[in-house]
């Protein structure tokens, strides 16, 4: 009997081919406490005012989204980075997914700064 999926399987010396076989990347929204929500609002108003007078317009305040890279086998977080805005988080997620699909596990872990076999990050 022919296996319809057999043609899509590629074997390279029995080893893994890409980091996407070990890890996934995703965005986790971080709920803000009422105090942090106030700080975020004040920081956003301050950033808007600063950009109005030419002092820059960077996002300030607590992060609202985390990029997390999880080990598929057990869900442990291998990498976490807080982002101040959704656009930055989405761009970083896109980069992580692209590199998961193209880099070896060793290259990916080195690029993102974690040990391939680390237990987990809290």
Report the total helices: 3
Shape: elongated
Mean of pLDDT: 75
Going across the biggest sheet, name each strand in turn. 1-2-3
Instruction: Tell me the radius of gyration.
Output: 19 Å
Tell me the quaternary state. Answer: single chain
Please write out the topology.
Blueprint lengths: L22 E7 L4 H19 L12 E7 L5 E7 L2 H17 L2 H8 L10
Antiparallel strand pairs: 1-2, 2-3
Task: Walk me through the structure.
- The structure is a single chain.
- By secondary structure, this protein is an alpha+beta fold.
- The chain has a domain of 65 residues.
- The protein is built from 3 helices and 3 strands, in the order βαββαα.
- A 3-stranded antiparallel sheet has the order 1-2-3, covered by helices on one side.
- A hairpin with a 5-residue loop joins β2 and β3.
- The longest helix is centred in the middle third of the chain and has 19 residues.
- The radius of gyration is 19 Å and the shape is elongated.
């Amino acid at each position: 009997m022919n296996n319809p999926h057999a043609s899509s399987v590629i074997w390279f010396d029995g080893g893994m081919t890409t980091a996407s076989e070990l890890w996934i990347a995703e965005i986790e929204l971080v709920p803000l406490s009422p105090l942090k929500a106030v700080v975020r609002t004040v920081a956003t108003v301050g950033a808007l005012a600063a950009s109005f007078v030419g002092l820059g317009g960077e996002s300030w305040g607590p992060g609202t989204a985390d990029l997390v890279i999880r080990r598929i086998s057990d869900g442990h977080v291998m990498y976490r980075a807080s982002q101040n805005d959704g656009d930055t988080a989405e761009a970083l997620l896109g980069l992580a997914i692209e590199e998961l699909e193209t880099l070896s596990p060793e290259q990916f872990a080195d690029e993102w700064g974690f040990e391939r076999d680390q237990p987990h990050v809290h």
